[in-house]
Amino acid sequence: MRLKTLLLASSGIIAAGMAHSAAHGEMADSMTLVSWGGAYQNSQQMAYVVPYLEMNPDVSVTWDESSNEAVAKLRAMNEAGNVTWDLVDVVASDAIRLCDEGLAMEIDHDEMLAPAPDGTPASEDFGDLIVSDCYIPQIVYSTTVGYRTNVEAWNGNTPTDICALFDTETFPGQRALEKRPINNMEWALLCDGVAKEDVYDVLETSEGQDRALAKLDTIKDDTVWWSAGADTPQLLADGEIVMGSTYNGRLFSLIVEQDQPVEMLWDAQVFDLDGWIIPAGLPEDRLARVMDFVRFATDTQRLADQSKYISYGPARASSAPMVGQHAELGIEMAPHMPTDPANATNTFLYNYEWWADYRDDLDAKFQAWLAQ
Amino acid sequence: MTSSATDPDAFTGATPDNALRDADRAEGPMLAADGTPLKKSLMRALRREKMRALMLIAPLLIFILVSFIAPIIDMLFRSVENQIVSETLPRTVIALDDWDYESGELPDEAVYRALAYDLVAAEAEKRHTRLGSRLNYETTGISSLFRRSGRDIDDVGEVYADQFIALNEAWEEPAFWVGLMASETWIEDQAEWAARAADEENFDRAEPRFRLRDGVAEVLPQTASAYSEFARITQVEDEDSPTEEEPWFPVYMALYHDLIDNPDAAGAYGGQMAEVLGAAAEAAPGFESQDIRQTFLDIEEGWGDLEVWGTIEAFSNPYTAGYFLASVDLQLTPAGIEAKPDNESIYILLFERTLFMSLVIMGSCILLGYPIAYLLSTLPLRVSNVLLILVLLPFWTSLLVRTSAWKVLLQQQGVINDILVWLGLVADNERLVMINNQFGTIVAMTHILLPFMILPLYSVMKTIPPTYVRAAKSLGATNWTAFWRVYFPQSVPGIGAGSILVFILAIGYYITPELVGGTTGTFISNRIAYHISSSLNWGLAAALGTILLVVVLVLYWVYDKIVGIDNVSLG
User: Fold this and answer.
1) Calpha distance A265→A145 (Å, rounded)
2) Which helix (H) or strand (E) segment is B19 a member of?
3) Is B539 helix (H, G, I), strand (E, B) or coil?
4) Residues 140-199 of A with CB under 8 A from B
């Protein structure tokens, strides 16, 4: 309750500040962007921030590599009444949670974001990818499986579909899967004979959940459970595992940039999104700056530019034809995009709203299953 | 000072303490130079001294209280806090008092009506989804139930609004509603404010807060409550004025029910308002009514689910034991406290595992650290200083690097397995599994925590005079007896200090277990971290943390009883 008074007091100050700067229509000259660090943040820096700073030399941009714990940190900042972040990069499920908690600002996509070059409004250009009223998608990535190409015990067989994960007879060896129910439960049901469109209906019942866990039980002893996206590429490179799930961009750099004997199994890849949210309750001048930046950074050209640096698909339909070559290697990037037609013959659509409901419950069951 | 001047004891009173004692001994009050009793003035001097000492440490004390103790207490408090339900759905919670989950029937119309008033207000302030997330921790599906219902709640009661407006268009006018609901002084204040806002240029004062008309809460109770909520949110959230906004549809629904309950409501008014209200009261019984329960069921089937209502009722108290129950694998259900099904029970197992593994790590730290500390304390200073730097070196290396190094060493294609295979001790297809299990966690954490054992041991051993052991041996003790009977007991305080440090650090570790623990080597702290950073279930995280804190305090107390806390030394 003490916190609440503090909060009210500080929001009063913020409101007063807003009224003040709104009258003058100023834009703040610094921004704090939050992202994941590493190659992904670098691609955002090169594609969005560098050109923006060329146009606005007075602005300074600070990166904070906190996307991993953005949800918790943003909530803590909000409770303390001092949000220091201006724009936060999060995956779609976190965006939904932040929006539900009132920590992210609701936005009008058509009004705030640039239309496509042919005039299509932003909400149509992004289409179904706008999974929450607070969310501005940037890229489509997928969680898919990579496997080593030189495993002797496989006798020349190569995995062709997702169920190779569960086929320890043909493909013996250790696997790596993420230490959470999402994706694993769906794959388990798909390989247990459930049709793609029925997966979530089956997973809703407790029999269905037991069925998925029973399927995962068959490989539990052969599986390393990862919690950081860098784990699987490392384990594959070391020969510690023969196949494992991870993000397609990580596998791209392992295969193309580091030239390891690994291939990607695009079958039943699960699409997911990464994008921006604007924290709720920013002062007017900072908000004006962020709006200006976001409008620029999510236009068709900028999203297409990002794919020069990393193999994630742009979230705008209008950006797809503009995807070019890798900035350093000079190879065509389109065939490495998860959305490329050749890769996307069999994809699985991650059901955000369903997981928002079932995440807490299934996570408890999954962790209990793991610990037993 | 007359009577005691002859007392020889009087001259021993050089310190304030002694003087006080002397003053006690003296017969009759001894007086100071200014005439106040000596005892009193000495007490005052003492108190001043104590205050001065307190002032010296005050900055640190306040700093610790504000930046350390207060946040911890605040965090722990969240483990029972649950105001969100009664604050978001105040009317529903009260209306639910008369409902019994055991009856097996859905709540009656009044509850659904209360829900409509609450939900439309919560939706306007975007609070309904927060409540949804909160209750979803208890019953799966409530999150989307609230999110989806929020989208359609605005339409509830539209039937009534249409009929009132068809009867008289005044019902559409914000000004008419204000006249009906607002106090006369507020109307005057508001008019004055509006005039100034129109005339003066830099006028940035906010509109005066809406106040209800006297007596309207008795005549039209539901309408008064719904309308004042509407007015408050319009002013605060939307920064608009109720004089310019038509009320929400549920307000019309409230009016309809008030007029049915109290057809003479118009009696409280005069003039045109009495006329319009009177006409409405006459027409109301003939209005087409809306089955509000059915409306909710049409919006979302979930509102027909007994479990949803049971959960809202079970968690309607501002304070709940629910989080603590969940932390010990129980759950608060509408039907009472139940054990969690086996396939969801995890916390007791993790608490036990955390304690067990922390003890094992502490034990292996003692076994490894004791000989090293002994060596350090007996070697010549120059050599031991170099070795001490080696002990401290890991402190200067990142925790992640050290943990990852263990992965490189211990994994199946790692250095140790490679050597074993090369030596022919292990077959190539039967490499040892040494990581992603309990063994890996224990090895990595023992390594990381070892300096915390060695340093206190070393500083205690340094103070043990070597002459004691020599004396014991010269009196005929064997090496072992001299060590066990003479040296070891003197080093026990160091073991005590090191054990407490290592154990308490180990019990809260989560990065290393997360990276090398696999499925069998994770700690309770990993779950706490998950609930803090991913699921945002801070209440449960706080309850788990509180239990962990209490367990540590109990162990500390047991330790004090068995070993004695005076018997702990950092050197």
Assistant:
1) 5
2) helix B16-25
3) helix
4) 174
Residues of chain A with CATH 3.40.190.10: 2-134+278-336, 142-272+341-371
What are the tens digits of pLDDT across the range A224-276? 999 888 889 999 999 999 999 999 999 999 999 899 999 999 999 999 999 99
CB A321 within 8 A of CB A313: no
pLDDT digits (tens, 9 = 90+) for B474-509: 999 999 999 999 999 999 989 999 999 999 999 999
* Rounded (10°) CA dihedral A97, A102, A104, A110: 100
Residues of B in contact with A358 (CB under 8 A): 140-141
Angle at which helix A92-100 crosses helix A70-80, to 10 degrees, equals: 20
ipTM of the complex: 0.87
Looking at every residue in chain B, the average pLDDT score rounds to 89
Location of structure tokens 């001047």 = B5
Superfamily of domain A2-134+278-336: Periplasmic binding protein-like II (3.40.190.10)
CA distance A269 to chain B (A): 23
Distance from CA of B529 to the nearest CA of A (A): 10
Q: Cα–Cα distance between A32 and A57 in angstroms, integer?
A: 16
Average pLDDT for residues B549-559, to the nearest whole number? 90
Decide if A360 and B126 are in contact by the 8 Å CB cutoff.
no
Nearest one of A1, A47, A268, A5 to A145, comparing CA atoms: A268
Nearest to B545 by CA among B269, B343, B347: B347
Of the candidates A69, A102, A368, the beta carbon closest to that of B346 is on: A368
Task: Write down all domains in chain B, each with its CATH number in brackets.
Answer: 3-77 (no CATH), 87-154+292-314 (no CATH), 158-286 (no CATH), 347-567 (1.10.3720.10)
The candidate with the shortest Cα–Cα distance to A259, out of A329, A323, A178, is A329
Q: Cβ separation of B413 and A363 shorter than 8 Å? A: no
Nearest CB partner across the interface for B204, out of A19, A101, A371: A19
Helix/strand/coil (H, E, C) string of A102-170? CCECCCCHHHHCCCCCCCCCHHHHHHHHCCCCCCEEEEEEEEEEEEECCCHHHCCCCCCCHHHHHCCCC
**A79 CB within 8 Å of a chain B CB:** no
- For an interface test with B, the pick among A4, A6, A14, A100 (most B C-beta atoms closer than 10 Å) comes out as A100
Compare all CA atoms of chain B with the CA of A105 and give the residue at the minimum distance: B126
When CB atoms are compared, the residue of B147, B414, B536 closest to A72 is B536
Cβ distance of B132 and A100 shorter than 8 Å: yes
- Subunit contact B533:A71, Cβ cutoff 8 A: yes
- Express the helix, strand and coil content of chain B in percent, nearest 5 each: 75, 0, 25
Model confidence pLDDT, tens digit, residues A148-198: 999 999 999 999 999 999 999 999 999 999 999 999 999 999 999 999 999
CATH topology of domain A142-272+341-371: D-Maltodextrin-Binding Protein; domain 2 (3.40.190)
Q: Which of B319, B431, B534, B537 to mutate to test the interface with A (most CBs of A within 10 A)?
A: B534
